[in-house]
Specification:
The complex is a heterotrimer of chains A (about 425), B (about 280) and C (about 450). With about 425 residues, chain A is mostly helical. Chain A has 18 helices and 3 strands. The two termini of chain A are about 60 Å apart. The relative contact order of chain A is 0.10. In chain B, the strands form 3 sheets. Chain B has a 7-stranded mixed sheet with strand order 3-13-12-6-11-10-9, sandwiched between helices. In chain B, helix 6 runs parallel beside helix 7. Chain C is about 80% helix and about 0% strand. By secondary structure, chain C is mainly alpha-helical. The chains are: A mainly alpha (about 425), B alpha/beta (about 280), C mainly alpha (about 450). Chains in contact: A-B, A-C, B-C. The interface between A and C is large, with 84 and 89 residues.
Chain lengths: ~425, ~280, ~450
């Protein structure tokens, strides 16, 4: 023990020193708080920027320009053999009928060059559109009808004001002649800006004005169906086993470690596994929703298992005791009491897992769902693509109109995701009300 | 709530506190203090003086508001969003709830020791040095060392820890941790030390040591202690205040309160009829 | 009958056995004085399961087994030179045969291919007949055996529950099987890759140049293919580092603000908003990065007189950072909230300001958890694919300059494996070796994070 005794710092003296320090500390406090607020503001700013960017491009992408033409539906020209079937209509000259009415609307231009420019006005999918119209309305044959045809994507881009008239003719994708025609049609009120039916009902196309998400949407739904059919029972069964039955042994431990590891594996690796196992080893075809669904199911399994386990754990033990107390077997207790009570929580986890699967792209690229497929898949073994992959592919195309279509597709995807998450939140609210 | 349960076993809680709420030489004085947690009133119109260099203990059944009142004295209730305090509490004729008063310097003057020992997960030295460092009390490293050493000595911990000042404070025993927390509070040179059931988590031997420490500290500090142990209150305090359902029922010299309580509720409590 | 119909038939048979089993059990109960051990529907389920389970198992075995068997048999038709060639030749031969089977023809078909294809079609027809008879027989007989065991004392519930338990265990094993599947699929191809390219060249090689492979094989010269993974890992870590530089301060300070300063109301609004950032699909971030951020970075850089690649690491890293913000903020928020209130009380009781309590008490106490969160975020950044595929370049520059175009492990994997691949080329196989390195990296990061969290939990338990 030392004999030193220290003078106690006098409280008065201490209070003075505290006072001396206080201004600096207050400034530091303000600065720190300001840092926190700035961080939140920046993060929210990014969110706003992201959504503003997508909405500002995507909302115009939901619309496109159409030109209204009066077409004479001449039976001999359109259906030479007169059977009114898809095959017989294939022999008809729909292009001719449309061009005739187009030239008429433009005041019958003469000369090859003029006609060529006029032809560039409308989408190359117009004859198909007219054919479908005739198939749907056979009674209107031999009459004059007004039909809206999509304008070509370059014309569309011009109408949106993204191509300037001031740009020298050689540097822009549409000629002065064509601009003249567009002005003429606009003056006649033939050009209209409407919700794009191609976007929602069209399938994949290299022509921006005709490209649509229908095939991808159906593909996404099929893929998710496969995914949920596999992942939900497996996930719930695993959760039930691990929470209610598993003995504390090596095997259980290994299963738990594996689930945690799977949750950490990058999604692209699941795609590689799908490629190596299902496509190369099992010889399943590429690009099909079945394989995509399986891969996504394995990927979302950890999410579903973890949330299902939490839901089961939240069921009070007293309920199990009550059931076991009246002589129910372990399995009956689980089936009749634990599962029904845990179900909302499990469904919440499953919906969140499905939302994750719906937005996933990389693993599906690996199993070939990136192929260019025009047909809408009719089943889980038909080749198809999914919405995020469609977005990825469109993002690669150079045409300006594709930027808007891509953003529009992103809006559709986000709308699905938001409604799924909203459903999960509602479900969770319901669950809270119960206990 | 308070209105409905004013009756306990047929005995009414008095509207006015019995005994002497005033002292000749007050360090702090509270007048008409009310505390609300949201809608719920936790403290109902309490007035009380806390004398200079005295130990005053707050006793009463659980939920009677004694800890809440204690935490009003250095505005620790500020950290709870829904807590509202009105009335006035003065230290040296200054209302501590005055907007001009800085809560930081108030807490430097009115230190606090908590129910559960809560050393920082830092070394013993850093635990003690924390307060002096943030408040800029030590002008030099030497001075800081001196503050740490004298605080530990005053807390009776120096001999036990002087060779391991760089080891974590969480590695000490419970009693040592609580004395470390007291040393940490002393290091800031406060005028008042608030203690919220400082011994409730300790074993009897550690409790005895802490009580001994409080006994020694009373010469230089004003100590307010909340306790569940009536023996402890009787042993260490000069004055005792009995709280019941958010009200201060009676206050007086410890000896008088324990031997000749003025109110039946106090009588019932100290004889162990409820609590 | 096709396999789908066969499966449906099996299910119908098992449904019939369910009805039969339940009825006989009910009859037993009403006829005589004895007490039925299990409820009638358990007997029904028992009969149904004994009918369906073995039959479906046989069906599955045939489905998976037949193609493997036929592939083996088809080799008898292969000419000498194919059999003596390497695995590539045999794979090509099999592909030709499968074209014949599917009726796809590209010009002249060699006679042995035609013969093998015809034989395969014959075998397939036989397989269907065998499968039909075998599966139906197993389902009928199995069901009958189960059905005949039903009597008063028969403990069908116990058996049914045992089967159910085994099914639950089986489901749990899927997690293990998936892991094994991932490891094996990547490992085998990687081993094949390392037979072609020595591991040290791959691990320490400073140059990545697989696109010369075709030229090399054709003998036209023009350089050799090199497979050094260092540039890609440097690119991955460069982009991850940029992402973390953005995400750590913003995420951490947001978490501190939300946990220590914000009122419950603000917290209730801001937290879900931040989580939206985590729910946005990565392809959307990729689109945003490529379309908006990259040109912006380029124009800003060029206005300052810097040379910026149009697919700079900076743009991809920035966007990836935004994606990771909610990851860091919500994990940090959790660990900050896990710091005991008593420590905050101690700090406030000594007269700390809020920021002093946060910086000197709360953050040091939460540090292990925050470090774990950051490690998990790194793991996520390393494994992130779509942003880098869409916004980072493909040029494997070994560069630490954020304004250069760099490539990453994941974007190379995608580039190599998307579309048609030759499964025998070193280029394709290199993707698997890269994937192996990616898995090792992310699992190691995950392991460290978990260890830190474990230690941290012990501290407060």
């Amino acid at each position: 023990m030392t004999d030193r005794t220290y003078q106690r710092l006098d409280p008065q003296q201490a209070a003075e020193r505290v006072k001396a320090s206080i201004n600096l500390r207050k400034r530091k406090e303000t600065r720190f708080l300001w840092l926190g607020k700035t961080a939140v503001a920046i993060a929210l700013g990014f969110l706003v920027l992201l959504f503003a960017g997508i909405l500002s491009k995507g909302i115009p992408g939901l619309f496109q320009y159409y030109v209204t033409l009066d077409v004479r539906l001449d039976a001999r020209q359109l259906d030479p053999s007169g059977q009114m079937t898809v095959e017989s209509l294939a022999g008809g000259d729909f292009d001719g009928a449309i061009l005739t009415s187009l030239y008429e609307a433009l005041g019958n231009p003469e000369g090859r060059k003029e006609k060529r420019e006029a032809r560039r006005l409308i989408s190359s999918g117009s004859s198909q559109r007219l054919m479908n119209y005739v198939l749907d309305n056979p009674e209107q044959l031999e009459s004059m009808v007004s039909i809206q045809f999509a304008v070509d994507d370059d014309v569309d881009t011009f109408l949106r004001g993204l191509i300037s008239r001031e740009t020298p003719e050689a540097d822009r994708r549409i000629s002065d002649q064509l601009i003249g025609y567009i002005d003429a049609l606009e003056a006649e009120g033939r050009i209209s800006y409407e919700i794009s039916d191609y976007l929602f009902f069209g399938s994949a196309s290299r022509d921006a004005e005709m490209a649509g998400i229908r095939g991808a949407l159906v593909g996404s739904i099929l893929t998710l169906l496969v995914c949920i059919v596999i992942a939900f029972p497996l996930g719930v069964a695993t959760a039930v086993y691990l929470e209610e039955m598993a003995p504390k042994n090596r095997l259980t431990e290994i299963i738990e470690i594996n689930i945690n590891n799977l949750a950490a594996v990058p999604s692209v690796v699941f795609g590689i596994m799908g490629l190596a196992i299902f496509i190369v080893a099992f010889g399943m075809p590429r690009s099909i929703p079945l394989v995509g669904g399986i891969v996504l199911a394995l990927m979302t399994l950890p999410t579903i298992i973890i949330s299902s386990r939490a839901a089961i754990r939240a069921v009070p033990p007293s309920i199990r005791d009550a059931a076991l107390g009246v002589g129910a077997s372990k399995m009956q207790t689980i089936m009749h009491h634990v599962l029904p009570l845990a179900m909302p929580g499990m469904l919440t986890g499953t919906i969140i897992g499905m939302a994750q699967a719906l937005g996933e792209t990389a693993p599906l690229l690996m199993i070939g769902m990136v192929a260019f497929i025009v047909d809408v898949p009719g089943g889980v073994t038909d080749p198809g693509t999914v919405l995020p992959v469609q977005i990825f592919m469109w993002a690669d195309f150079a045409e300006r109109m594709f930027v808007q279509k891509t953003s529009a597709a992103i809006i559709v995807l986000l709308a699905f995701l938001i409604s799924m998450n909203a459903a999960a939140i509602l479900l969770r609210k319901k669950l809270e009300r119960r206990w | 709530m308070v209105q409905n349960t004013n009756q306990v076993e047929g005995r009414a809680v008095p509207e006015k506190t019995l005994g002497e709420i005033q002292v000749d030489n007050p360090r702090m004085s509270a007048r008409n203090v009310n505390v609300f947690y949201g809608e719920k009133q936790a403290i109902d119109n309490i007035s009380l003086d806390i004398g200079m260099s005295q130990v005053i203990s707050f006793i009463g059944p659980s939920g009677c508001g004694k800890s809440t009142f204690l935490r009003c004295l250095n505005r620790m209730n500020d950290t709870i969003d829904i807590c509202k305090v009105d009335g006035e509490i003065k230290i040296d004729h200054q209302n501590i709830y005055d907007p001009a008063i800085d809560v930081v310097s108030l807490r430097a003057r009115v230190g606090m020791v908590f129910q559960k020992p809560n050393p920082f997960p830092k070394s013993i030295f850093d635990n003690i040095a924390y307060g002096p460092r943030i408040h800029g009390l030590a002008a030099s490293k030497v001075e800081l060392d001196q503050i740490v050493e004298s605080s530990l000595q005053r807390a009776g911990l120096w001999e036990e820890v002087k060779d391991r000042l760089d080891q974590p404070g969480t590695g000490l025993s419970g009693g040592q941790q609580q004395r470390l927390c007291i040393a940490r509070a002393i290091a800031v040179s406060p005028e008042v030390i608030l203690m919220d059931e400082p011994c409730s988590a300790l074993d009897p031997i550690a409790t005895a040591k802490v009580e001994e420490l409080i006994h020694e500290l009373r010469e230089q500090y004003t100590i307010v202690i909340v306790t569940h142990s009536m023996q402890q209150a009787a042993r260490i305090s000069d004055r005792t205040a009995y709280f019941h359902l958010g009200k201060l029922v009676e206050v007086g010299d410890t000896k008088q309160v324990f031997t000749n309580p003025r109110h039946e509720l106090t009588q019932d409590y100290i004889t162990g009829r409820f609590g | 009958m096709s396999f789908t119909n066969l499966m449906l038939t099996v299910l119908v048979i098992s449904a019939l056995y369910f009805i039969a089993g339940q009825r006989v059990a009910r009859a037993l109960r009403s006829n005589n004085a004895g007490k039925l051990h299990s409820l009638p529907h358990y007997h029904g389920v028992w009969a149904a399961v004994t009918s369906a389970l073995p039959a479906l198992f046989v069906l599955l075995t045939i489905l998976i087994g037949k193609d493997l068997l036929f592939q083996f048999w088809a080799r008898d038709y292969f000419p000498e030179d194919v059999m003596n060639g390497d695995t590539v030749d045999r794979a090509i031969a099999l592909a030709k045969v499968s074209n014949v089977i599917n009726g796809i023809s590209f010009g002249e078909v060699e006679p042995w291919v035609q013969a093998a294809g015809d034989a395969w079609i014959r075998w397939d027809a036989n397989a269907i007949v065998v499968a039909n008879s075998l599966v139906l027989a197993v389902s009928l007989v199995g069901g009958l055996l189960g059905y005949r065991r039903i009597n008063l004392a028969f403990r069908s519930r116990n058996y049914v529950e045992r089967i159910l338990t085994w099914m639950l265990i089986g489901s749990s094993l899927v997690a293990i099987l998936t892991t094994i599947g991932i490891v094996l699929s990547v490992l085998f191809e990687s081993i094949r890759f390392f037979k072609l390219i020595p591991p040290q060249d791959f691990l320490f090689g400073l140059e990545w140049n697989p696109q010369f492979e075709g030229a090399e094989r054709a003998g036209s010269g023009g350089g050799t293919a090199t497979y050094g993974m260092v540039p890609m890992f440097v690119g991955t870590f460069l982009i991850s580092a940029i992402a973390l530089t953005v995400a750590i301060p913003i995420g951490l300070f947001s978490a501190i603000y939300l946990a220590e300063y914000a009122t419950p109301r603000i917290r209730g609004i801001v937290k879900p908003l931040l989580e939206i950032l985590a729910g946005v699909p990565t392809v959307v971030y990729g689109f945003f990065a490529a379309l908006t951020v990259a040109p912006f970075v380029k124009s800003v850089g060029e206005s300052m007189g810097l040379e910026v690649a149009s697919e700079s690491a900076l743009a991809a890293g920035l966007v990836m950072g935004v994606m990771i913000i909610p990851f860091i903020s919500s994990l940090s928020d959790d660990v900050i909230n896990a710091v005991p209130q008593s420590l905050r009380d101690a700090a406030y009781g000594l007269g700390s300001t809020r920021s002093e309590a946060v910086r000197q008490v709360v953050l040091p106490a939460a540090l292990p958890g925050i470090v774990a969160a950051v490690i998990l975020a790194v793991s996520r950044a390393v494994g992130e694919t779509m942003i880098v595929v869409m916004a980072a370049g493909l040029a494997a520059n070994l560069s630490f300059n954020p304004l250069d175009a760099v490539t990453t492990v994941t974007s190379q994997i995608v580039t190599i494996l998307v579309g048609d691949q030759e499964f025998e080329s070193a280029k394709t196989l290199s993707a698997f070796a890269l994937a192996l390195m990616l898995i090792i990296t992310t699992l190691a990061l995950n392991y460290f994070a978990l260890q830190i969290v474990k230690k941290y939990r012990e501290q407060y338990d």
